[in-house]
UniProtKB/TrEMBL annotation:
Keyword Cell inner membrane: no
Pfam families: DUF1151 (PF06625)
Species this protein is from: Molossus molossus
Chain residue ranges for the region called Disordered: 82-105, 126-157
InterPro entries: FAM107
Protein name (Swiss-Prot/TrEMBL): Family with sequence similarity 107 member B
Top-level taxon in the UniProt lineage: Eukaryota
Keywords assigned: Coiled coil
Amino acid sequence: MTNCMSPDSPFEDPDLKDPYFISRNIMAEPDYIEDDNPELIRPQKLVNPVKTSRNHQDLHRELLMNQKRGLAPQNKPELQKVMEKRKRDQVIKQKEEEAQKKKSDLEIELLKRQQKLEQLELEKQKLQEEQENAPEFVKVKGNLRRTGQEVAQAQES
């Protein structure tokens, strides 16, 4: 069996039987790549008017210098800062509320007991402060009553 195809043919090479290689060899290359034909208009990359503007170049240069020096760009407006702070506070408040809703019955009871104990401690402290701040004759009167009661109990027994 004689092969009439040339050895350079893609159909001849067993590695190149993939249809991708076949279609690639069939496609024609553009003319402007091969020749330097002066009649053809060659494609050129479009100019970006933003990058060519003087203001953009100055701004870009300034940002690069500030970045090298470690300076941040201009700060945000005050209104924007306040709005972001409110939003953060609102998110934190929502999370706290969700955490409160998720508390179990045991945690709720423990919190109630803790609050009661704190109230009792505050009342004791107030009583002690009142006794310490009371005039001397009130203290003596209280001591006399106690001793009188103790004497009466001792005589009865």
